[in-house]
Design a protein that fits this description.
homodimer; 109 residues; mainly alpha; Arc Repressor Mutant, subunit A; two-stranded antiparallel sheet; 52% helix; globular; DNA-binding
Chain lengths: 109, 109
Amino acid sequence: MVDTNICPKFEKALSILNKRWTALIVFQLLNGSQRFCNIESGIGISGRVLSERLKDLEKEGIVKRTVFDETPVRIEYTLTEKGKALEPILKQIQSWSDKWIETDDQTVV
Amino acid sequence: MVDTNICPKFEKALSILNKRWTALIVFQLLNGSQRFCNIESGIGISGRVLSERLKDLEKEGIVKRTVFDETPVRIEYTLTEKGKALEPILKQIQSWSDKWIETDDQTVV
DNA sequence: ATACTTACTTACATAAAGTAAGTTAATTAT
DNA sequence: ATAATTAACTTACTTTATGTAAGTAAGTAT
């Protein structure tokens, strides 16, 4: 990447949030801990990419993976404090979309 | 895409903002109108993708392209009201990154 | 034993982004 | 007058990211 004069922290944040699905995964987890297959079906992401994203988000300290040693084993993904702190961003996106995005109601008759 | 229970306006907003470079372009234009090459060098995007993104953003009504018929012709890109309204989102991202992203100061000696 | 579920991974196909060179039109430098 | 430079792109080609589908391992239900 080329040298820019933009704050590196901000750029880092964008490089995380910019990635496809990241925001939706976080949005989904704001409703509470969820299992792999629930996130998968909840937002319509493929398992391949979800697996990849969850690893990234774990590495960034945004998501925590917890294994419950029941039988069968249960694995849950939860937002960390850092992850929960993303809520105001998503809220802002929501209110922007409410104000500025039109629903092109494509109801086929 | 698979059917989800997420608000379509919100999904639409994310599909715009999620795209690589979109947020940085808007961020750059919050400083005022800019020319193609200034955005290009300002954020380190390639001309190919910048051209593509500006067209997308124009289509979404976020950016306005203005041709000044001087010689040589000058073309400026400006945020519309809809585009300016994205500022609070970027501000939120900024404050999140200030609080949660660490600078891994990789100063090579 | 067979089928089903969860949480993945692997292999392969398609779409998006990066790189570099080319285009057009006008401008300035020699 | 010719050559080089700048702005705003486009085109061709390569690399990376994402999607699709099938496979795996461990356990459960019938």
